[in-house]
Amino acid sequence: MRNVVLKKEMKFPNAKVFRAALREYAIKKPIDIKFKLNERTKISVRCKNECGWRCYASQISGELTFQIKTLTVDCTCPKSFKNSQATSAYVAKRFIEDFSKNPNWEVTGVHNHVMQNLSVDLRVN
Ligand SMILES: [Zn+2]
Questions:
Q1: How many CB atoms lie within 10 A of CB 75?
Q2: Which residues are in the Transposase MuDR plant domain (predicted)?
Q3: In whole angstroms, what is the distance from residue 46 CA to residue 68 CA?
Q4: Per-residue pLDDT tens digits for 53-78
Q5: How far is Cα 36 from Cα 45, in angstroms, rounded to an integer?
Q6: How far, in Å, from the CA of 76 to the mean position of ligand 1?
């Protein structure tokens, strides 16, 4: 699920898929998201820095399908290179292939590789 795009009216098969897409989107942008509502039938997130960015999606009644109801324009916060969504578990999972292909990588090499791919500075976490 790379380069995920979120649009208003967009549908997802279920809440789990929507959450995964949202997480990927937030990392890519990056937007430091905060869940305001995280329920079985509705999910609402906003930018942690209160710039006004928000996304709201809810379940279509009678279906598992999730649909984005509200999505504001991009987060306007300056890129701080800090993103709480980029957990070490996520990074490990995403780059495990690269790691295994390059068993001799030094820590700095891995760090630079992650930086280039995610624009996230792992040192702040
Ligand atoms: Zn923001």
A1: 21
A2: 10-68
A3: 13
A4: 999 999 999 999 999 999 998 888 87
A5: 5
A6: 5
